[in-house]
Amino acid sequence: MNQPLSVTRRTKLLAANADGIAEAAELLRAGGLVAMPTETVYGLAADATEGTAVAGIYAAKERPSFNPLISHLPDPAAARRQGLFDANALALAQAFWPGPLTLVVPVSSGCTVSELARAGLGTVALRVPAHAIAHAVLEAAGRPIAAPSANRSGRISATSAAHVMADLDGRIDAVLDAGPTEVGVESTIVACLDGTPRLLRPGGVPRAAIEHVIGRPLVLAGDAGHAPIAPGMLTSHYAPAARVRLDADAPEQGEAWLGFGPGQDFPTALNLSPTGDLREAASNLFGHMRRLDEMGLRTIAVARIPEQGLGEAINDRLRRAAAPR
Ligand code: TXA
Ligand code: MG
Asked: CB under 6 Å to ligand 1: residues?
């Protein structure tokens, strides 16, 4: 199963039923690569405890191997066996698991997540997704499952099985198709390492909801002058082929338009949410970017998105897509 990637594999499309779930779990237990749905985006899953399986992820994604990966567990109890949870981590897990939150915590003595999945760090990123099919696969796999977004490195995250296939067909063993994902942006990542919870990546759980639980403002990693600890925060991580122009009022000649809210009817346009609903916008973000990018125009102009709730995560992704490269 871990043959070199120069050997093209046949990528199986599995249905989200008992047979598909069983086959996905079997492939994972044998060291294979399976794209599986979560409530945020599709994940490119592999056995997190096996370095060779994890290496397959980096290879298929063409991802720099120093990036640590998120390990997925079926329930909070299984997650707690992998890491050391302080009071903040416990409160956040209690409030948001299962759900689109990832906690970075020190490894426990019984942690089985491979060094490679942790990029050699003494910390581990843990997540319990809120998705019935993901839950069933994780339960059947019976071990932590590493799963970065199921796209090639630097490309737009996959929110449907078709997006996964567009990037990874022939590079992975299977795609478990459960339709489009619900949240549409990745999980919020919070590090609980030294008594001060830090926001490493905005995502599906809004910052205000987290601050409500921990009872104080979230410190942004990087605020205190240190380098970003989540490589996902590298500036040009989410990069379409087209140039991206942000906070636009209208498209210019020859630009594609990514709108938000009512009254945004331009030619060559898609609207993230005609009603101005940020949840709808988040779930449409990567798919719309991808579709506009496929039209082959030089520039995608993007309407202003309010910087509140899920808007913070949307703008974070958009700023990365627009970063010079
Ligand atoms: O919604 C999601 O989180 C999706 C779905 C599939 O679950 N997964 C995802 O994983 O976005 P990935 O690998 O694309 O993002 C992992 C992020 C990276 O920014 C990585 O640097 C950070 O988590 N990370 C992982 N382990 C870390 C650690 N020990 N310390 C700091 N950052 C870590
Ligand atoms: Mg990603």
From this structure: 38, 40-41, 43, 67-70, 100, 102, 104, 118, 121, 123-125, 127, 129, 147-149, 186-187, 189, 200-201, 229-232
